[in-house]
Write a structure and sequence with these properties.
Blueprint: H1 4-27, H2 35-49, E1 58-63, H3 65-71, H4 78-90, E2 95-98, H5 111-119, E3 123-130, E4 154-156, H6 160-163, E5 167-170, E6 174-175, E7 181-185, E8 187-189, E9 194-196, H7 198-207, E10 212-214, E11 217-220, E12 223-226, E13 232-234, E14 246-248, H8 249-253, E15 266-271, E16 279-280, E17 288-289, H9 290-303, H10 311-332, H11 337-360, H12 368-404, H13 409-417, E18 426-438, H14 440-446, H15 449-469, E19 473-478, E20 481-486, H16 495-516, E21 526-542, E22 546-551, H17 553-567, E23 572-575, H18 576-582, H19 586-589, E24 593-600, E25 609-615
Parallel strand pairs: 1-14, 1-15, 2-3, 2-15, 3-5, 21-23
Antiparallel strand pairs: 3-4, 6-7, 7-13, 8-9, 10-11, 11-12, 16-17, 18-20, 18-21, 19-20, 21-22, 23-25, 24-25
Helix pairs in contact: 1-10, 1-12, 4-5, 7-9, 10-11, 10-12, 15-16, 16-18
Length: 632
């Protein structure tokens, strides 16, 4: 655990630095590389929110295909445009906005009529700003609230004859990298002047008050209108084209337009004709007319129902990005990784729902910034964690494989599923076998140490294979011998039967192995086996390093039975208790001779024990150095 604390602290510190740097840059508007992602996520939220009805404030008079077909071409003659404005004026609109660039003199002599028409009602006409290829910012020593405004090279202004009778506003939009308008700059400047945007100019005409420019917004008729960085009014559309009430200019020209569509409303005249070029892609419509985007901005300014995105929301975005990043990385570092991943999923879901709810209620919280802040540290830290965990898993796999070499496979599997096994000693019946090589100590004195070790390793391997094939366990190798147990990890009804069979096959295979040894070695060693069945105490022995074993009189008797086998020149001495528990002895007599039982004194015990002896008469190599005979 101590090693994880510095690792987690470093990860949290680096994540904090990354998220804070992004957040500060975002708050200052200096992370434009997120704009495309933010645009996609904004479109998804807009579509999820759905269409909304536009307020009853603006009417669009559309110079559409019908009007152009009726008047014979586009652009419309100035006289026709003047006639449209005259008709609108008679219905007493609140203000008239002409979203057309009237830069050159008309060819039909209608400029004078158009100028007179504009003078009859509060009117605004459009201008455009021309920006250099690289956006220029004012000098760094300029500390005014408008210092960050992009500087235009020049303005394309309408003819003076029109500008004398109407207010002028700049119609430029702010688009993202995909070309979708995301805002309208309410202020645009050149080196010597600042111009109001076309929507702001129209709204000011409609309320009859000039706007007051503030540090982070504008004030119009006593109402504060927050703006984004550089006094940009954010855009979130009501719906596709036609969502803002629209009337064909053809109806105005023939005098059939309804008065209710114009009276006391702001009327915006603009082109929607096919091929007119003034269209933009939006989430709701791939060819949204520019005049409807302008009308949407005017609605926002007049009603205040636009989307809120300003310095305060950007600050909230930055704080949220830092908090989300630290939370995700912290949860990834949680020791309980599954719970941590579920918590991350829940946290991200809560953030996404909160973000969408805020957006649907008119607060534009950024979606790309928290993702960009949290995802790279989470992916990097998660990858490092995965790599470290994989290395740790490999380490534990090697360690487990190594430990399995010191315990029987069945016992290892049992301990894996039952780690508390034998923490408390357990009393039970079990079968115990001891096997020992005779004469190996004397032989090892004359053998090279490596040759002796190889001989002992072959013997251990043989014993291990035989015991495993009979589902027993070797509790320990005792130099040139072994202690074998049948009854762990759980006692079964056939423990004694398997132990008896194992004892016999061990005798046969050890005899065969000795016969296969070199002639200089084989005559000098033999073996003896003792087997008994009865009560034992199974437990863990040791302090910090423990091993599983069995103790009790049964274990002692099984060990002493090897002496009985050696005394009477047999390969195997086994107790009557074991044979009675094992059942029919036919399996023991298939490859050898079983004699007994006889009451036999066991060293260390006061009472005699009924013992059987087993020999393989045809190839008995047991106890060859000290063959003896007795009453058996």
């Amino acid at each position: 655990m101590s090693g994880r604390i510095p690792q987690t602290s470093i990860a949290l510190l680096l994540s904090l630095v990354w998220a804070a740097a992004l957040g500060i840059g975002y708050w200052n508007g200096d992370v434009q590389f997120l704009d495309r992602a933010e645009g996609v996520l904004t479109d998804l939220r807009l579509l999820a929110r759905g269409e909304r009805a536009a307020p009853d404030v603006v009417t669009i008079i559309a110079i559409d295909d019908e009007a152009v077909a009726r008047q014979g071409g586009y652009p419309l003659p100035r006289a026709d445009l003047a006639a449209i404005i005259e008709t609108i004026t008679r219905h007493e609109p609140r203000a008239i906005a002409v979203d057309l660039l009237l830069l050159d003199q008309g060819k039909d002599g209608g400029d004078a009529a158009l100028a007179q028409a504009l003078a009859k009602r509060r009117s605004a006409i459009a201008a455009a700003a021309v920006f250099p290829d690289a956006i220029q910012i004012l000098e760094a020593d300029d500390k005014s609230p408008l210092a960050r405004l992009p500087r235009a090279e020049r303005f394309l202004r309408p003819l003076p004859a029109f500008a004398e009778h109407a207010a002028v506003g700049v119609v430029n939009l702010t688009t993202d990298k995909s070309g979708t308008p995301r805002g309208i700059p309410l202020l645009v400047r050149t080196s010597d002047k600042v111009e109001l945007s076309f929507p702001l100019r129209v709204a000011a005409l409609a309320v009859g008050h000039d706007p007051v420019i503030e540090a982070d917004g504008v004030r119009l008729a006593g109402r504060n209108i927050p703006t984004d960085i550089d006094h940009v009014l954010p855009l979130a559309y009501y719906g596709p084209r036609g969502t803002v009430p629209t009337v064909s200019a053809a109806l105005v020209l023939d005098g059939s337009v309804a008065q209710a569509a114009i009276h006391d409303r702001i009327v915006v005249i603009g082109a929607t004709v096919t091929g007119g070029g003034d269209v933009f892609s939006t989430p709701f419509d791939p060819v949204m007319p520019g005049v409807e985007i302008v009308a949407t901005a005017i609605d926002y300014l007049m009603t205040g129902d636009g989307i809120l995105r300003d310095r305060s929301t950007r600050l909230a975005d930055a704080i949220l990005a830092v908090a989300l990043t630290l939370a995700v990385v912290g949860l990834l570092a949680w020791r309980r990784s599954a719970a941590g991943l579920l918590s991350i999923a829940a946290l991200v879901a809560v953030w996404a729902v909160t973000n969408y709810v805020a957006f649907s209620r008119g607060i534009w919280l950024g979606a790309a910034l928290p993702i960009a802040a949290a995802a790279p540290p989470a992916i990097l830290f998660g990858s490092i964690q995965l790599w470290l965990n994989r290395r740790q898993a490999q380490y534990f796999a090697v360690k487990s494989e190594l430990l399995q070499q010191f315990q029987a496979p069945a016992l290892n599997q049992w301990l894996t599923g039952n780690p508390a096994f034998l923490l408390e000693p357990r009393h039970q019946d079990a079968a115990v076998i001891f096997i020992d090589l005779s004469g190996f100590t004397a032989l090892s004195e004359t053998l090279d140490i490596d040759a002796g070790l190889a001989l002992l390793k072959d013997f251990h391997t043989l014993v291990d294979d035989e015991v495993e094939s009979h589902s027993g366990i070797i509790t320990s190798f005792l130099g040139d011998g072994a202690m074998i147990l049948f009854g762990l990890p759980e006692a079964t009804e056939d423990d004694a039967r398997r132990a008896a069979r194992c004892a016999v096959t061990l005798c046969n295979h050890v005899a065969q192995w000795i016969d296969s040894l070199p002639a200089t070695v084989a005559p000098r060693i033999g073996f003896k086996v003792g087997a008994h069945f009865g009560p034992i105490v199974a437990s863990r022995l040791g302090g910090s390093y423990q091993h599983i074993t069995a103790t009790g009189d049964t274990v002692n008797v099984a060990s002493r039975l090897m002496e009985v086998a050696a005394k009477y020149g047999a390969a195997l001495a086994l107790s009557d208790d074991l044979l009675r528990q094992a059942g029919p002895a036919s399996a023991l007599t298939e490859s050898g001779t079983l004699t007994g039982p006889n009451e036999t004194r066991i060293r260390g015990r006061t009472r005699p024990l009924s013992v059987w002896l087993w020999r393989n008469d045809s190839r008995d190599r047991s106890n060859r150095p000290t063959p003896r005979s007795g009453e058996f």
